[in-house]
Amino acid sequence: MAGGLPEVSLPCLGAGPDVRLADLRGPLVINVWAQWCPPCRDEAPYLAALQQKAGDKLRIMGIDYTDPRPELAVQFALDNKLDYPHLVDAEKQVRKPFKVGGPPVTVFVDKTGKFTLHNGALTSQEQLDQLVRERLGVQL
């Protein structure tokens, strides 16, 4: 189990206030992604379905990572019904704390702010749902 979320503030993708990651508490799933990343595109439907099922049991947030075309990222999120908040990390500020070799990375944040990581693409809805159960104790 890692410590708390990093002291990093990131701007919203599109409009909205900056978000300080260290202030966030779970149960929360943060997905580090980019529109140019094929595995990120592959796992997007699982995250959209999780958002639909989660209701108020769990929050989801995306971090668009080192993306040279933020307008394409906005379009990708809209096209894939990823209708949860997304932040922008153009400067790779989460690279070290989230051990990002490249996207995707999924971060599971518990109610105290402690987090665990899943590096690489999510391969099925069942896998994502099981990770949410095991790491956050949330039944969907």
Give a verbal description of the structure:
The protein has 140 residues and is α/β, with parallel strands linked by helices. The chain has a single domain, classed as Glutaredoxin (3-Layer(aba) Sandwich), CATH 3.40.30. Helices cover 28% and strands 22% of the residues. The chain is built from 3 helices and 7 strands; from the N terminus they run βββαβαβββα. It has a 5-stranded mixed β-sheet with strand order 5-4-3-6-7, covered by helices on one side. Strands 1-2 form a two-stranded antiparallel sheet. The chain is globular and about 35 Å long. The model has no long low-confidence stretch (mean pLDDT 93).
Brief synopsis:
This protein has 140 residues and is of the alpha/beta class. The chain contains 3 helices and 7 strands, in the order E-E-E-H-E-H-E-E-E-H.
Write the layout of secondary structure elements.
Elements lengths: L8 E2 L8 E2 L7 E6 L4 H17 L4 E7 L4 H10 L6 E4 L15 E5 L5 E5 L5 H12 L4
Parallel strand pairs: 3-4, 4-5
Antiparallel strand pairs: 1-2, 3-6, 6-7
Protein name: TlpA family protein disulfide reductase
GO molecular function, one term: antioxidant activity
Keywords: Cytochrome c-type biogenesis, Disulfide bond, Redox-active center, Signal-anchor, Transmembrane
